[in-house]
């Protein structure tokens, strides 16, 4: 919570610094890419438990992300309770049925065909953890008055990317899920109107027979995602 009494700029020395040689930088960058290219979106999970501490550490990593004015406009709700997961699945599948029955439009549904998705979402119950990502549109000072948050979608998007990378780094798989609308999550999870649910992330271990769509293995080459001006 921010205090109106401590809003001044106070520079401090950079507290953490990694000093690498040019060779080490190349090695570190290559190793990180090699690890991240092994990340896959997975829809089949085992119910093997995952320690709460693992999830907490991954969310702590997400919380280190940069944000507009350092307001950190995010909140994460980590859910292991079976009844809450069941309610989320039922509500999400109801929205998904509308989506696949025509709400999405023919072009969008056609684009999803190679992914092999449908309105059945058993992973929302089987995965040991669901992490609901909320975007905080405004916050409150310690005296209760309201303040605006800035670059909220961008900030929350970066933090979510950190979270997905952290889950992968911990040896877990994840699936992002965005039923629309998701307002039911505020009431179910006791979050205020100032927060907008933007994503559900299922996290856990893949089932022994887990599959991924072949098309998901196709990534754009560097020449299509990078322009260098030097």
From TrEMBL:
Asked if the Swiss-Prot or TrEMBL record annotates the protein with the keyword Flavoprotein, the reply is yes
Q: Could you tell me which InterPro entries the record lists for this protein? A: Nitroreductase, Nitroreductase-like, Nitroreductase/BluB
Q: Which UniProt keywords apply?
A: Flavoprotein, FMN, Oxidoreductase
Q: Name one Pfam family in it.
A: Nitroreductase
Entry-linked Gene3D superfamilies: NADH Oxidase
Q: Which GO terms describe its molecular function?
A: oxidoreductase activity
| Residues annotated as domain Nitroreductase | 37-205
UniProt name for this protein: Nitroreductase family protein
Q: Which organism is it from?
A: Flavimaribacter sediminis
